[in-house]
């Protein structure tokens, strides 16, 4: 079951995390790219529409500026003012034979000048259908036009009777009120933009006439003829308070229904261009770009095509998909690389661990390397070598322990027989009143009795001190009473502390034979025990100090390493080294015997043991 759950392994987790990271990177990249690309596409679409609209605006603006300049010229020209002043009260043109015949010359001259200005105005002949200069009485008017049917009777009256004439003529400036049907076309009238201005007398503010210029709506439709307009895009022009939708090359009055959702600032290049997000009547969201046409109150608007936007977005989606595919391929390649880079070293490490489990502790160089797995491999190789060293040391320690036990057993030469024999000698000495011999025999008998119990058991400190006192009593008789022993125990509780049997006797013996005896005079031994707090916790420290000849550093090392020559006394076969080793075997390397000595002054041997009390 665990093999089916790769996430439980480190390799599986790394591969999973890598795949998740690459997938997250792909999602983030796709999201950012899609957002940025869509924003870029929308901005590009808006700016492209703005550029196309501005091209139309510049064309219409330049032409309309020329036409309004012609209209203003007609209203302000002195020759035309003199003509109107001369004919303001006349209903008919003077005949050649009349006395006012010079007025005919004025009329011809003014007409010629008007026609010349008309001809000099760029594109006037293409889009201005008529120019009329008329007195207030609408008689003797001047009309310029390139249309074949321009000579309509009573043209000035036709214009004056139009519904918009009075309002436009009375306005302080040009009044833009959308397209109006050409009053001179009875069938399928062409939409035009009328430019009507009053003409004042050169001598007063009296209105003596008016000018009329009729601009064809083709001025705008021709400019929009090459404008790129997808089927779902809408174009409409606003002139004054009226709007017109461009359909099939002609204008239809009206405006599409929509609701403005928000302004879109910063998308257009020209600050005069207005961009809005709108909701159409069918619920779809669109963008509306509006540019001024250059004439006050004139604007042209484009509701952008969504089909064109989606078509361009498909291209970018393909690019994003390709980027995503590359990221996922990179992630798969990285996952395979990690699987290979992790799987092989782990397999070799597992193989080495299996070899160790089978007992092969040899060094394997293949699992070592400069990477982290190589560090682990070096650790495993070092551990296997340490295991071999530890096993060899353990075998050697066991061998030494067996040798020590064998030596102790050798020293136990039929102790029960010796104990019974010594007990008989004690009673004979008592009968003969030899108290010294009785005391020595009693002490020796107790020693033999303790020897018969072996050395492996632990006994209370009190029993060990009794054994030391028996041994020291025998040595006092040997040295004629020139040696003394003083025991200082820190508290009564310390008497219950457990200690190996025959731990203190070799220490006392060393103080006698290697410290006091070579000095050749009386000696003193101080034995103290105390409870101490150390890094090991609570420990029992027993110190044995003599005032003998002391020991050099070399002698201390020999005593602790069992290099000193054994004596004839069988107790001395146990030795300080054996005592030290036995303590370390049972309690660890931090416990045992330490020696401090100054040659010619003293020697102190300190035994450190775990603080354990006898519960019996």
TrEMBL record:
Pfam families: HAMP (PF00672), HATPase_c (PF02518), His_kinase (PF06580). One of its GO terms (cellular component) is membrane. It comes from the Bacteria. It is found in: Membrane. InterPro entries: Bact_2-comp_sensor_kinase, HAMP_dom, HATPase_C_sf, HATPase_dom, Sig_transdc_His_kin_internal. Its main location: membrane. The keyword Transmembrane does not apply. GO terms for molecular function: phosphorelay sensor kinase activity. PROSITE patterns: HAMP. Keywords: Kinase, Phosphoprotein, Transferase. Residues 340-392 form the HAMP domain. SUPFAM superfamilies: ATPase domain of HSP90 chaperone/DNA topoisomerase II/histidine kinase, HAMP domain-like. SMART domains: HAMP, HATPase_c. PANTHER family: SENSOR HISTIDINE KINASE YPDA. This is HAMP domain protein. It comes from [Clostridium] asparagiforme DSM 15981.
């Amino acid at each position: 079951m665990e093999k089916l759950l790769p996430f439980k392994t480190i390799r599986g987790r790394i591969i999973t995390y890598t795949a998740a990271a690459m997938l997250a990177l792909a999602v983030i990249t796709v999201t950012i790219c899609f957002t940025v690309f869509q924003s870029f596409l929308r901005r590009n679409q808006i700016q492209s529409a703005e550029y196309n609209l501005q091209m139309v605006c510049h064309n219409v603006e330049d032409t309309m500026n020329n036409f309004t300049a012609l209209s203003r010229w007609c209203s302000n020209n002195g020759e035309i003012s003199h003509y109107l002043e001369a004919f303001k009260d006349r209903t008919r043109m003077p005949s050649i034979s009349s006395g006012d015949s010079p007025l005919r010359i004025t009329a011809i001259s003014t007409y010629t000048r008007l026609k010349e200005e008309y001809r000099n105005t760029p594109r006037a002949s293409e889009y201005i259908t008529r120019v009329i200069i008329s007195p207030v009485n609408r008689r003797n008017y001047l009309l310029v036009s390139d249309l074949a049917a321009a000579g309509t009777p009573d043209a000035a009256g036709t214009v004056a009777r139009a519904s918009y004439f009075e309002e436009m003529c009375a306005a302080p400036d040009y009044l833009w009120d959308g397209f109006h049907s050409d009053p001179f076309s009875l069938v399928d009238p062409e939409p035009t933009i009328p430019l009507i201005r009053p003409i004042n007398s050169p001598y007063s503010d009296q209105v003596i006439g008016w000018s009329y210029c009729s601009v064809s709506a083709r001025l705008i439709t021709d400019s929009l003829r090459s404008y790129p307009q997808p089927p779902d895009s809408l174009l409409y022009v606003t002139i004054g308070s009226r709007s017109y939708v461009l359909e099939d090359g002609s204008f239809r009055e009206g405006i599409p229904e929509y609701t403005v959702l928000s302004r879109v600032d910063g998308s257009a290049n020209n600050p005069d261009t207005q961009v809005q997000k709108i909701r159409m009547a069918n619920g779809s969201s669109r963008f509306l770009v509006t540019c001024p046409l250059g004439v006050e109150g004139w604007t042209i608007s484009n509701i952008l095509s969504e089909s064109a936007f989606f078509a361009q977005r498909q291209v970018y989606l393909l690019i994003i998909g390709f980027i995503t595919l590359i990221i996922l391929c990179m992630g798969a390649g990285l996952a395979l690389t990690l699987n290979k880079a992790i799987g092989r070293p782990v397999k070799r490490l597992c193989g080495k661990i299996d070899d160790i489990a089978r007992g092969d502790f040899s060094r394997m160089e293949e699992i070592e390397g400069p990477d982290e797995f190589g560090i682990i491999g070096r650790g495993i190789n070092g551990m296997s070598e340490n295991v071999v060293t530890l096993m060899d040391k353990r075998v050697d320690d066991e061998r030494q322990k067996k040798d020590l036990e064998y030596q102790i057993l050798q020293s136990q030469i039929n102790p029960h027989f010796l104990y019974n024999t010594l007990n008989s000698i004690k009673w004979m000495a008592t009968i003969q009143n030899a108290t010294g011999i009785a005391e020595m025999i009693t002490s020796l008998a107790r020693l033999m009795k303790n020897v018969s119990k072996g050395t492996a058991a632990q006994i209370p400190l009190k029993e060990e001190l009794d054994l030391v006192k028996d041994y020291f009593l025998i040595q006092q008789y040997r040295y004629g009473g020139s040696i003394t022993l003083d025991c200082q125990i820190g508290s009564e509780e310390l008497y219950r502390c457990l200690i190996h049997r025959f731990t203190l006797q070799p220490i006392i013996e060393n103080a006698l034979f290697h410290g006091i005896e070579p000095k050749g005079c009386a000696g003193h031994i101080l034995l103290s025990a105390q409870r101490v707090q150390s890094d090991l916790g609570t420990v029992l420290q027993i110190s044995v100090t003599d005032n003998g000849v002391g020991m050099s550093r070399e002698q201390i090392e020999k005593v602790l390493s069992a290099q000193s020559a054994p004596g004839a006394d069988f107790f001395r076969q146990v030795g300080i080294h054996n005592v030290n080793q036995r303590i370390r075997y049972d309690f660890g390397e931090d416990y045992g015997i330490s020696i401090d000595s100054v040659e010619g002054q003293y020697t102190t041997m300190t035994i450190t043991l775990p603080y354990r009390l006898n519960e019996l």
